[in-house]
């Protein structure tokens, strides 16, 4: 056939530009669709990272929640994500980081993949395991939901990753599409306690109550068992497991005699806090059983000294305040390092807590019941409002049916997004130039995520120490080693089981909780010389820790000339106490170790110059 039969008919000259423009529009539409599809997939993976991070809730004392999802990508060819190849979450401070777990699960499939992090890594000082895990796994790109809200950690991991040649995209910065709004919301929600703490310097507080359809939390007689269903009460146990402490008032103790334990199947047991101005409390109550959980009674200074002594004899911690109010109690909880508080109080305490601005979220369980009663108590007492326009509106409200009940939850204050307001560590000087060299500089440390958190016994630094036979044994932290030695050398198979139980604890928090509980319940199995030898035990562990990790030794030496204080407000032996009344033995031992290291370095310097 003649080739002319297959030749294209020339288009009119006037139509060529229009056809070309249409073609370009189609191509652009195709590219935008692929990009949108990729963005939607990425947003879903980031939400997944937040979900994975939430797995640690109720397992150990609440801490910043980290989740990592690694996915294989083929965006260059417009095909989007291939598969999730690795996931991990931080179980507790001192355990394997989320990034390392995800990289180990992915193996070689991680190479060239993309890692999705709900929160920028915040490693203990000098420990870059999260960053190095992603680098060694061959990750090509990292997507971060939130920058670290803690000023001393903010931006460091992102900068470290970029310095290794890894592309890092942060939502709200490099990724500004509206598609990521829900993903960002998930990242904010899973770390709401950390964000509220950083923004307002108080723990994240949740007010929970159960009420009838006519707004009563109990009958006129005060009887309240049970307003809500068993399914709703199970959800309350989960809420307790996510909290550092549970707050109630004296009326709740007198009327209900609650236990306030989690009973949720997890390992974390929140502390119980009773607020009582007069200490008009029963001498016998479930909350005074500290074998189940730790109890703190907050009261007015000078209130019933006899009752204070009786409570202290039972192991209950009594804390006096000049004026007892929710704001000061929450400041005290902030100093203890608490992130999240659950308020299960009655209306007379809930009202001042709301008025003082310390309640951030509400969980209301509404049961399909009517009890009536003019004098029946309601969940919130007098707030001083006289017009409906003054009512406090909840935001981000959620509704969920739980059995016959309806759970309504929402925030009284929005979750703070601290990205634009907290300066980076580079912008914040760690040294105050106004301090006179003749003044004493005090460096405090407590939680592992504090600026000098690596000084804590809970920091994630395993040590190897010889046992009674001279064989070296690995301990996951100094706290593991210290708690286990309470029962070392005791001629009892049960004591030996205690040592093994503590050694196998997954986190330093669990080692501490187990050791303290066993010491309370079995004082006869504690080594008889413990009180006289515990300082030596601690010092041996500290020497090993700082000898094993050079970066920690450098950090310790950088504090030369400063007083080191373990800022525990309740441990008056190892810590400095609330008002500096503690003995601060941990700080003393660190300063002693610092002096020894400096002295040894000085001798070496003299020998080398001689």
Outline of the structure:
The chain is of the alpha/beta class and 610 residues long. It is built from 17 helices and 18 strands.
Overall CATH class of the largest domain: Alpha Beta
Q: How are the strands of the largest sheet arranged?
A: 10-9-8-7-11-6-12-14-13
Strand content is: 15-25%
Counting structural domains, the number is 3
Task: Give a written overview of the molecule.
By secondary structure, this protein is an alpha/beta fold. Helices cover 35% and strands 17% of the residues. The protein has three domains: 25-190, Cytidine Deaminase, domain 2 (3-Layer(aba) Sandwich); 195-371 and 393-411, 3-Layer(aba) Sandwich (Dihydrofolate Reductase, subunit A), CATH 3.40.430.10; 425-609, Orthogonal Bundle (Tetracycline Repressor, domain 2). It has 17 helices and 18 strands. A nine-stranded mixed β-sheet has the order 10-9-8-7-11-6-12-14-13. Strands 2-1-3-4-5 form a five-stranded mixed β-sheet, with helices on both faces. A two-stranded parallel ribbon has the order 15-18. Helix 13 (493-503) runs antiparallel to helix 14 (508-521) and helix 15 crosses helix 17 (585-609). The longest helix is centred in the first third of the chain and has 38 residues, at 16-53. The chain is globular, with a radius of gyration of 29 Å.
Search tags:
610 residues; alpha/beta; Cytidine Deaminase, domain 2; Dihydrofolate Reductase, subunit A; Tetracycline Repressor, domain 2; 9-stranded mixed sheet; 5-stranded mixed sheet; 17 helices; 18 strands; globular; disordered N terminus
